[in-house]
Specification:
The chain is mostly beta strands. It has a domain of 71 residues: Immunoglobulin-like. Helix content is 11%, strand content 41%. It has one helix and seven strands; from the N terminus they run αβββββββ. Strands 3, 4, 5 and 7 form a four-stranded antiparallel β-sheet that branches. The chain has a three-stranded antiparallel β-sheet with strand order 1-2-6, with no helix packed on it. The longest helix is centred in the N-terminal third of the chain and has 13 residues. The N and C termini lie far apart (72 Å).
């Protein structure tokens, strides 16, 4: 069976469209991109839970300050979750963050942020 005249010209158009979509723009492959390594950042924190109390000990080994905040999610629906106020851990600094629930702690974590 011979292909109809209408479907034959559509093949080059489809092929050209696919090539335009899949190939990178002219010159994009020839320009090398400078690899920028991210600067080390972020204090290392150890979070401990003891019953209804949470303690996070954080140490910042880097030269840039780190804003740390303790977040405590309580197990009971009526026990309010708590998001701590950010505290700055300076270079080579140590910070202790504490929080609590009325009853059991479900989950606790520390968030990090940059100053400025």
């Amino acid at each position: 069976m011979r292909p109809s005249r209408r479907s034959a010209p559509a093949a080059p158009v489809v092929l050209l469209t696919l090539l335009c979509v899949l190939l990178p723009p002219h010159g994009a492959a020839s320009r090398p991109r400078a690899a920028v390594a991210p600067e080390p950042f972020g204090a290392s924190c150890r979070v401990r839970t003891d019953g209804s109390e949470v303690t996070a000990d954080c140490r910042n080994p880097y030269p840039e300050p780190d804003l740390l905040a303790l977040h405590v999610e309580c197990l009971r629906w009526w026990d309010p979750d708590a998001d701590g106020v950010p505290v700055e851990a300076g270079p080579a600094g140590h910070v202790r963050l504490t929080g609590r629930c009325w009853h059991e702690v479900h989950h606790a974590w520390v968030s990090h942020g940059r100053t400025g």
